[in-house]
Design goal:
By secondary structure, the chain is α+β, with helices and mostly antiparallel strands. Helices cover 66% and strands 11% of the residues. Strands 1, 2, 3 and 4 form a four-stranded antiparallel beta sheet that branches. Helix 13 packs across helix 15 (328-334).
Length: 335
């Protein structure tokens, strides 16, 4: 008898646990006390649809206490089933309502489903954040490199959170604006004297277009002088010109050496031909003697002409280099 009673008690406890799990009576009482109109049947159907009633009811209670009228049970359930964060959406809507920021339930759920933290976005819209840019190097027109760091104050733009670019785009655009501003300056001294000119030029370009943020201010935190890029480029160019000139001079020298060697070869070839021709002269004279075409008198006349020619050359040669008397041998041959 006692075992049967214990079994009945255990069965009753199990049935009550199952009942209160599928019919969260205490949660229904909490909703009623808070002024939220929801039935036990709806809570039971949430369990069937595998939607946690605690999350939905707490969100409805928070929205009701904050005076939000456009948040419904069906909307919260649909957002949960879509994979959204119901608590963050409700917190963001309450925070936006208190800060007088226009944010609808549809917009908040869209931002949450897009992967952004909608509550942090609302907080960023209320409290702007400061983004420090990495060092940006740029060169002024006088060739001096400047390295600038900027601090960008931004706040979230709720309407552009879905599909808007992030912080990386803001940093890239600000860096591009700094490079453009410094590059258009005639002298690096102008930039050092008026660093706010960079901020004004960058802000005037509307760099926050298409992003999820609104740029409030851009402040130049630090500017350092880098290298003299213009001088280095001129040195490199001069060195390159020098190397080109040396290469061309070496080419001309090699061509001159080759031409000289060619001329020497031709001269040696010509001398060899002359020597060869001179060697044929005695043979030709001997043949002329044997054949009778050349006589002794003809031979002496030819020698006399050669001596006369040699004398004339010796007389003409000292006329330019000094007066030297003609040689005795030439005089004797002429006589």
């Amino acid at each position: 008898m006692e075992l049967g009673l214990v079994a009945l008690l255990i069965l009753a406890v199990i049935l009550l646990a199952i009942f209160f799990y599928y019919v969260p009576f205490l949660l229904w009482m909490s909703a009623k006390v808070s002024g939220v109109n929801i039935s036990l049947v709806q809570l039971f159907l949430m369990r069937i649809r595998k939607v946690p009633p605690q999350v939905i009811v707490r969100g409805m209670i928070e929205a009701h206490k904050a005076g939000l009228k456009d948040i419904t049970r069906d909307g919260l359930e649909a957002h949960y089933l879509a994979g959204g964060h119901v608590e963050k959406v409700v917190h963001a809507l309450v925070s936006a309502n208190k800060a007088n920021i226009e944010l609808t339930f549809q917009m908040a759920t869209a931002i949450d489903l897009a992967g952004r933290d909608v509550f942090d976005a609302v907080q960023m819209s209320v409290n702007p954040i400061v983004i420090d840019t990495p060092p940006v190097a740029a060169v002024a027109k006088d060739g001096i490199q400047l390295i600038a760091k900027a601090r960008v104050t931004v706040r979230a733009n709720i309407k552009r959170l879905v599909g808007g670019a992030g912080e990386e785009t803001i940093l890239a655009r600000v860096g591009e604006g700094i490079v453009s501003s410094i590059g258009s300056s005639q002298s690096h001294k102008q930039v050092l004297e008026n660093p706010d000119s960079i901020s004004k030029l960058v802000l005037s370009k509307g760099l926050d277009a298409g992003t999820a943020f609104e740029i409030l201010s851009i402040d130049i935190a630090d500017i350092d002088i880098g290298k003299n890029i213009g001088a280095e480029l001129q040195i490199d160019q001069a060195q390159a010109d020098k190397n080109i000139a040396q290469a061309k001079a070496e080419e001309r020298r090699a061509m001159a050496v080759a031409s000289e060697q060619e001329m020497k070869a031709k001269a040696q070839e010509a001398r060899a031909k002359v020597i060869e021709a001179e060697a044929e002269v005695p043979k030709a004279m001997a043949e002329a003697f044997r054949s009778g075409n050349l006589g002794i008198m003809d031979y002496y006349k030819m020698k006399n002409i050669e001596a006369d020619t040699s004398m004339r050359e010796s007389i003409a040669r000292p006329a330019s280099s000094g007066n030297n008397p003609p040689s005795d041998s030439s005089s004797k041959k002429t006589k």
